[in-house]
C-alpha cells in the first residue's frame, strides 16, 4: 500500500504492474522534455526583444514541429500497445478464481477445487483491530499462491461492479450476465488490498478486496484445512 505523502504509484506486486510503472515513468520523462522545451521557447520569446523575418514563417520549423510530435507519439504508442497485448494475454493458468459481485460484498469460488467458495465482507469499524486497515480488510481473505499464473473470472449478480487491485495492475468490470476474465501472477508474499471501482450503489466503497499471497505449500495446506 501507499503511505502518507507518497506521490508515486504503489509498489508493483506483479510483472504487469512493474511494466506499467516503467511505462508511466517513461511517458512522464517525455512529457517533461516537451514541457521544458516549450517553456524555454516561451521564455525566450517573451524576454528577447529582437525580431527576425525567419520567426514569422519558415518551412524548416513547420516541418519539424509536424514530424517531431509524430515521432514522440510512436515512442509512447509502441510500449503502450505492447502492454495492452500482455495484459490481455491469458497464459496457461495454474488455477482459476471466480469473483461474483453483489450489493455490497464479493463471493469467490475456487473452480479447481470441490465446494471451495465463500463470501467476503468488509470488517465493521467497531470490530477493527490494531493490525487491520479500516475499510480495506475483509473477514475472509482470498488466499493465492505466489509465482503462479492465476486466471480470474469476474461477473456480477445484480449491478455493475469492478474488481480492482492497484498493486497487481488488475481492473476488471463485473457485468451481470457476462463473464470477463483476466490473468495475473503475484511475485512476492504479502497482503494486497483493493476496492470496487465502479459506482454500483450507496455502499460501493464498502466492498473491499483483500488478497493474501502465500507460498505454494502454505496454499495447499490452506485448501486441505478447508476441505476437512
UniProtKB/TrEMBL annotation:
Transmembrane annotation, as ranges: 27-47, 67-85
Subcellular location: Mitochondrion inner membrane
One Gene Ontology MF term: cytochrome-c oxidase activity
Catalytic activity field: 4 Fe(II)-[cytochrome c] + O2 + 8 H(+)(in) = 4 Fe(III)-[cytochrome c] + 2 H2O + 4 H(+)(out)
Assigned protein family: Belongs to the cytochrome c oxidase subunit 2 family.
Quaternary organization: Component of the cytochrome c oxidase (complex IV, CIV), a multisubunit enzyme composed of a catalytic core of 3 subunits and several supernumerary subunits. The complex exists as a monomer or a dimer and forms supercomplexes (SCs) in the inner mitochondrial membrane with ubiquinol-cytochrome c oxidoreductase (cytochrome b-c1 complex, complex III, CIII).
General function of this protein: Component of the cytochrome c oxidase, the last enzyme in the mitochondrial electron transport chain which drives oxidative phosphorylation. The respiratory chain contains 3 multisubunit complexes succinate dehydrogenase (complex II, CII), ubiquinol-cytochrome c oxidoreductase (cytochrome b-c1 complex, complex III, CIII) and cytochrome c oxidase (complex IV, CIV), that cooperate to transfer electrons derived from NADH and succinate to molecular oxygen, creating an electrochemical gradient over the inner membrane that drives transmembrane transport and the ATP synthase.
Name this protein carries in UniProt: Cytochrome c oxidase subunit 2
Protein's organism: Reticulitermes speratus
The encoding gene: COII
Amino acid at each position: 500500500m501507499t503511505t502518507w505523502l507518497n506521490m508515486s504509484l504503489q509498489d508493483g506486486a506483479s510483472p504487469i504492474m512493474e511494466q506499467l510503472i516503467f511505462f508511466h515513468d517513461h511517458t512522464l520523462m517525455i512529457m517533461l522534455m516537451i514541457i521544458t522545451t516549450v517553456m524555454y521557447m516561451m521564455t525566450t520569446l517573451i524576454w528577447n526583444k529582437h525580431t527576425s523575418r525567419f520567426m514569422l514563417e519558415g518551412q524548416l520549423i513547420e516541418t519539424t514541429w509536424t514530424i517531431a510530435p509524430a515521432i514522440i507519439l510512436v515512442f509512447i504508442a509502441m510500449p503502450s500497445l505492447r502492454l495492452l497485448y500482455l495484459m490481455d494475454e491469458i497464459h496457461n493458468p495454474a488455477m482459476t478464481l471466480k469473483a461474483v459481485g453483489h450489493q455490497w460484498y464479493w463471493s469467490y469460488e475456487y473452480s479447481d477445487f470441490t465446494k471451495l467458495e465463500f463470501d467476503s465482507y468488509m470488517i465493521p469499524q467497531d470490530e477493527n483491530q490494531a493490525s487491520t486497515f479500516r475499510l480495506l480488510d475483509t473477514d475472509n481473505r482470498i488466499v493465492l499462491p505466489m509465482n503462479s499464473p492465476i486466471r480470474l473470472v469476474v461477473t456480477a449478480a445484480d449491478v455493475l461492479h469492478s474488481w480492482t487491485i492497484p498493486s497487481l495492475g488488475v481492473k476488471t468490470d463485473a457485468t451481470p450476465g457476462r463473464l470477463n476474465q483476466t490473468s495475473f501472477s503475484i511475485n512476492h508474499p504479502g497482503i494486497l488490498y483493493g476496492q470496487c471501482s465502479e459506482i454500483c450503489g450507496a455502499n460501493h466503497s464498502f466492498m473491499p478486496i483483500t488478497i493474501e499471497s502465500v507460498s505454494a505449500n502454505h496454499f495447499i495446506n490452506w485448501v486441505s484445512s478447508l476441505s476437512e
